[in-house]
């Protein structure tokens, strides 16, 4: 029982600051060719920024993609980006919900995800010790 309380205390210690802050959790992936599978990393956007999905085009072909944080003023803008010696036109689709820039368009509620993980972990600990 003491171990469960210790684990719950650690969860609160590490998760409470992110819950109390106004930072927006989003996925990050650097600019990559569309045929490469990105490895998403969770990042936090400061209050002045939102999550984005970027689409890099060369002519009529969508060839690049990226995800991350961008200033609200840059949403729906098109910019010229140089990538591996070629100039692409990149447009940004923005959103302001947690994890809204996932590739599957699934918005995860961080609290629900955290509660699910804590519940699964607690149940696993109970079954392992009894």
From TrEMBL:
Pfam families: UPAR_LY6
Superkingdom of source: Eukaryota
CC annotations in GO: plasma membrane; side of membrane
Family: Belongs to the SPACA4/bouncer family.
Protein name: UPAR/Ly6 domain-containing protein
UPAR/Ly6 domain span: 41-102
Record's bilayer topology term: Lipid-anchor; GPI-anchor
UniProt entry tagged with the keyword Oxidoreductase: no
GO biological process: sperm-egg recognition
Keywords from the named record: Cell membrane, Disulfide bond, Glycoprotein, GPI-anchor, Lipoprotein, Membrane, Signal
Subcellular localization, as worded in the UniProt entry: Cell membrane
Signal peptide coordinates: 1-21
Location, primary (coarse class): membrane
CDD domains, sorted: TFP_LU_ECD_Bncr
Species name: Oreochromis niloticus
Keyword field contains Transit peptide: no
InterPro entries: LY6_UPA_recep-like, Snake_toxin-like_sf, SPACA4/Bouncer
